[in-house]
Amino acid sequence: MSDRLGIDVILSEDIDARAPKCPHGPTLLFTKICRGEEHEPGRRFYACSACRDRKDCNFFQWEEEKVSESRHLAREEYNKSRMPPFTHAEYRRRCHQYRELPLHRRKFCQDCQLLLLPSEWDVHCGHRVCGDIALTALRRPSQLLHPLKNKKSNAQYLFADRTCQFLLEVIIRLGFRRVLCVGTPRLHELIVSRASEGKEPCVRSLLLDIDFRYSQFYSEDEFVHYNMFNHYFFGGEAAREVCATFLHQNSGQEVIIVTDPPFGGLVEPLAYSFKKMSAMWKQSLQPEMQRSELPMFWIFPYFFEPRILQCFPEFCMLDYQVDYDNHALYKHGKMGRKQSPVRIFTNLPPKEIILPAEEGYRFCLLCERYVSSENRHCEICNSCTSKDGRRWRHCSICRKCVKPSWIHCDSCNRCILKSHSCGKTASGCFVCGSADHKRRECPKLHVSKKTKRVKQSCKKKPTQMAKEKGPISKTKAAIRKKMKRKKQLLTSYRKRRKEKA
User: Fold this and answer.
1) pTM, whole model, 2 decimals?
2) CA 22 to each of CA 60, 78, 79, 400, 428: distance values in angstroms, whole numbers, following the listed order
3) For FRET with 216, which of 178, 304, 333, 334 sits at 20 to 30 Å CA-CA?
4) Per DSSP, what are the bridge partners of residue 346?
């Protein structure tokens, strides 16, 4: 029996059009991948795009499954019941009323994560309610709201002030004046707060996030309820138009997208959504600029670099370590293996992004980019090869630089941790087990597909063969008819003997 190893996502516009919906928008089509059955396509099914855990969203439907009308209606009712209690416009009206209240009457329900009007106090009397909410706190909603902690769907690890200040300084230095913040509420807060103070140059921001709670604090021109895993705008065409208008201003110039997706999410759906966002942006460009790409900062752990480069070959990874306020490990200033693994991936020239020298970053003349203090240039690889902030060493057998804690294993024929189990590969191709490529690029996969087609043709019934290859000869038909008659006679004879006995 084959061991199930994982699933693969199938992305195309045709699939998007017919995908059923869950509370988080159109679902994604997945297929199961098993070792030993690489030539047999796994059964395909629809599941939630945002939640990888069935406890958070239990939507499941086989691709070929037929859904009855009653079940379809029940599903629509369930999706409506999971929507926010108020529309964005209603949230804004409530916020205006809330701001007009005196300080001692401004209360916030921590259980419902809701700004409370005086008429609602009795309903929330048994909840945890905090009072005396200052107007300055409404400008920093990420500090008032509880961060979502599900790392498989909508985990909210909020940027530290150091990271926000660095990103904004780089954005201004590069000449961008509009920032599309996709899942980066802290950066959006900083930009909005800076604009309200009238600082120059003026930078505007639009927040796209799956957390609808921000609708309480921002207008329709500042926040859009959005799912980055399926490029779904919960507000419909009006919300999509807000995003398109923001991208198209000034003929599409001076705009950049900064995104910080949940680390447990799949890279392929995210890249698929960002490419759709780039296509939306290109609609405002002049014909001679159509080959340009939407400038982007994609913030993700460094070990996802191969997957990101597979989707965006023009991207490069910066050495800057991103840190978070509410994450125990991803902190700035730690040494060795405890350093933050989160990096910035971008399609902008790396030599133009200046990293702070006071934190130890320096410019490598050979690589033409800024690197961390421990990232030394390898003359053999002709590159600054470190990914995790430590000084890597070159292995002459593997012909590449590896982590300092790795040793070369002759049995496995590669560099790996000293405490590893020989013969076991932690990652690589599901089909052949090679660590050099993934399943989609495996040459054996294409051979297996051809073999499968041959086997299927051998298993076809005579009637199918007759339809594809013309009528069966009279001689063969007569022989089959004779054999069938003999079988019937033999069955009848055995039945009579059994009755006599």
Assistant:
1) 0.82
2) 9, 9, 6, 46, 32
3) 178
4) 297, 316
